[in-house]
Each structure stands twice: as structure tokens, then as C-alpha cells.
Amino acid sequence: MTQDPGWPSNSLLGRLRDNTRQELLSIGTVVRYTADREVIEQDAKDTHVLLLLEGVVKVQTTDETGDTALLAIRVAGDLVGEMAALDQKPRSATVVTCGDVVAKLITSGELMGFLHRRNDVFVELIGMINDRLRWANQRRRDFLSHPAAERVARVLAELVQTYGREETAGWTLGIPLTKVELASIAGMKPRTAEKAFSDLRKAGVVVSHLRRDVLVPDLDSLRKFAGI
């Protein structure tokens, strides 16, 4: 067996063979967090990683002026905090829970020992990091070649297609993020977020929802608007 359909295929756990996955799941300590909890703090010098088992977290960074930008979403099966574990440098971002989260807390020593034993996992870890770098590079290219509304549409289309669920009225992301947070992934400031979402609503491809969710009536139309 090469892949467990219970884990997203692009997550670390989804990439591993069953016996390797079970070995990874056997190390570390189970931890539980409530909603809106900072589980990793930017600039902190700790070096453990969190292997997410249940729930969703958001990865964000804060600049010198105090502005916060959302960098990414991570779900069950994903590993977070691996950069500090590998290079022993201060944390580059903050990780915050979106609802209740269950994870395995794995020390840097435990992770490095496991990677030395299982070179195949190291290869998959590099592949995961490479995918994340490609995502970040794509956001930079979008910033150069697409207007604000299209950049948000491109981010939303990818997030909804990866993490969302299809319902009667369309697709919902199902992750409690504000418009400002979603727009910040696309590299825009808060003041631009409302205008971008207004343009998406006028185009009929996104409907803002209460409870910090969005409804995409037609995913194909959103992708077409985004130029994907």
C-alpha cells in the first residue's frame, strides 16, 4: 500500500507508504489545542515540529510595522515547524489553530533520528518543502501579472479545490478565515481586500458568507475569472 486515502495526497502523511507512516505516527507526544491558540510563535527559538492529526491551522507572519499576513493553511496530515527543526534557527512564522486541533509534538532530535533511519521520508519531506516553495513563488508571479481580484480568485480557487467541500449551493472553503486573511495570501494590504471581494461578488463567482466562510457558486467560473 503506497497511500492512505484518509490523508490528503499532498500532505506528508499522504505521501508515505503505510508502514513508514505508522512508524512516523509512533514517535512524539499527542497534544491537543483549542481554537485561536498560537502553537508556534514567530522568532521563538524552540525547534519541535507538529504533525497535524485533526483540525486546521493557519501560518502567518508579522512585519516590523505590526501588519500580519496569512501565508498558508495546513490540515491533518501536514507537518508544521520543520524549518526550525532542520536549521535550528528562530521561527520564521506563527502557527495559529482554526478550531480544535490534535497533533503529535515531535522534538527536533526525534525527527532527525527518524529521518536518519528512513531516508525515504527525507525525500518526501524535501518534496513537500519544494511544493510549498512553488506555491510561494506562484503568489509572487501572480502579484506581478494579475490585478487584485484575479489574485484573490486564484488563491481561492486553489484553496477551495484542495480543502473545500461541494454543497447544494456550490463550494465552501470551510475554514474560518477573514477576507483580509484570504487577500493577504495574495499579497495585498487590508484596504485592498474589500475592493477585491466586491469585484468577485459583482462578477458572481464568490458570495461572502457569515462565520468567516465564502461560497463559490461555480468553481469552474471562479477558475475562468482567475485565468487558470
Automatic annotation (TrEMBL):
One of its GO terms (molecular function) is DNA binding. Residues 146-220 form the HTH crp-type domain. Coiled coil: none annotated. InterPro entries: cNMP-bd_dom, cNMP-bd_dom_sf, Env_Response_Regulators, HTH_CRP, RmlC-like_jellyroll, WH-like_DNA-bd_sf, WH_DNA-bd_sf. One of its GO terms (cellular component) is cytosol. Keywords: DNA-binding, Transcription, Transcription regulation. Pfam families: cNMP_binding, HTH_Crp_2. Residues 12-97 form the Cyclic nucleotide-binding domain. The keyword Transcription regulation applies. It comes from the Bacteria. This is CRP-like cAMP-binding protein. It comes from Saccharothrix tamanrassetensis.
